[in-house]
Every structure is written in C-alpha cells, then in structure tokens.
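Hi R.,

As promised on Friday, here is the backbone we talked about, encoded as structure tokens. Could you run it through your design pipeline when you get a chance and send me back a sequence?
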C-alpha cells in the first residue's frame, strides 16, 4: 500500500492532491496516517482505503469517522501526545501496557460495529518509547497477542536505527532492512518502508531462504 501523512488540516488535508494522483492506480491500497477525525472523513471521501490513527482511535469522533466506512484500520500505540511523547516515556510493564491499550481500542471499535478483519495493530516503535523499549517490543513480538490480529511494524529510517548505527535518516537503509527482516522473522505481517525496491529485494531473498529451509526440514 501507499502511505500518506494527513496530519494537518488547514484549509484541507495536504494529502488530498496526492490521493487524487494515487487513485489512478486502483490496485494500490492507499493508507492515511492521521489522528484528526476531520482528516479521516475527508480522505475516506477522497478514496482512502486504510486509516492509520497514530493516537489509536482514542476519541469518539475518530471512531465514528471510520466505523461505517468499510476501510481498513490500523490501531497504533502511542504514550502521551505527539508533542510530548518522547519526554521521558515510562512504563511499569511495557508489553502488558501496550497490549492492554490495543485490546481496549479493538473492543471499542468492535462496539461501534467494526469487524476484526478490518483491523491491524502497530506497537508504535518510536512513539513514546525509549531506544531500549523499542527493541524490547520488537524482540517480544512473537509473544504479543491481541485477538490474533496482524502486526504492522514501521521502523524504516527511525531514530532507533540511527542510535544504533550512528547514521542520519538518509543513510539508514542497511539498518532499516536488517530491522525489517528481523520484524518479519518475529511475525510482522505488514511493513511500513521508505525504500520500496530495496525492501522488496531483501524480502525476496529472505523468503527464498525460508522456503528452502522448509524443504530441507520435510
């Protein structure tokens, strides 16, 4: 899918012209990242296929904006608000708190009539987490279970890559690919990436190795 950011709403979502262009490729699902209900409505009206609420559909208005749309939904975990989320994030039990929040939001959407087959989950790497918390979440992915829903992982070019490699965002391809393959190995079903061609090639080689390995074991 093609993911666009629609966080701003003055005088209209800035992604709407891009949605219009992208709609010329009907086989390509279009995903919008936003926490603003008015942006959700405008983008759904313009043909968006997926709404990724970076605030996890905390507001009633956001739930109402998407409930009857039929669009795919991504519930993301974020501690705090976008402007403050990285100010000393703290958890008593990281894994339990992330899963508990996501389960609560899944149930909230279900009460609004949203079928589970429309939902995927994002643990929110880089959103209200320290470096160690990001990697703890990723490493624990096989043990994280919320109603059997698929996990979306987005770590491409993020600071959690840069803090390990010492590279700026434009030079984090190798680290991003390594993190992506680790995520897939740990059970991620959906990936958010910047470098599509390189990611596709890396996944193709990874899949070939996995397939040959299965043949060897049978």
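Update: got your reply. Pasting your designed sequence below so it's all in one thread:
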């Amino acid at each position: 899918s093609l993911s666009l950011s629609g966080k701003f709403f003055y005088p209209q979502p800035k992604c709407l012209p891009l949605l219009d262009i992208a709609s010329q490729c009907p086989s390509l699902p279009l995903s919008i990242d936003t926490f603003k209900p008015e942006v959700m409505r405008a983008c759904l009206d313009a043909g968006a296929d997926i709404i990724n609420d970076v605030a996890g559909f905390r507001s009633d208005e956001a739930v109402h904006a998407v409930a009857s749309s039929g669009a795919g939904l991504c519930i993301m975990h974020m501690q705090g608000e976008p402007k403050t989320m990285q100010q000393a994030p703290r958890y008593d039990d990281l894994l339990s708190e992330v899963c508990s929040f996501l389960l609560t939001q899944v149930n909230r959407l279900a009460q609004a009539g949203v079928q589970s087959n429309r939902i995927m989950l994002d643990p929110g790497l880089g959103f209200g987490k320290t470096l160690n918390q990001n990697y703890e979440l990723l490493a624990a992915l096989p043990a994280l279970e919320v109603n059997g829903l698929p996990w979306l992982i987005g770590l491409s070019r993020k600071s959690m890559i840069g803090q390990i490699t010492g590279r700026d965002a434009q030079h984090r391809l190798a680290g991003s690919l390594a993190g992506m393959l680790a995520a897939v190995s740990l059970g991620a079903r959906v990936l958010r990436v910047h470098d599509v061609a390189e990611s596709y090639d890396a996944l193709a080689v990874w899949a070939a190795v996995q397939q040959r390995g299965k043949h060897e074991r049978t």
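One thing I noticed while checking it: Residues 88 and 154 are 21 Å apart (CA to CA).

Thanks again,
M.
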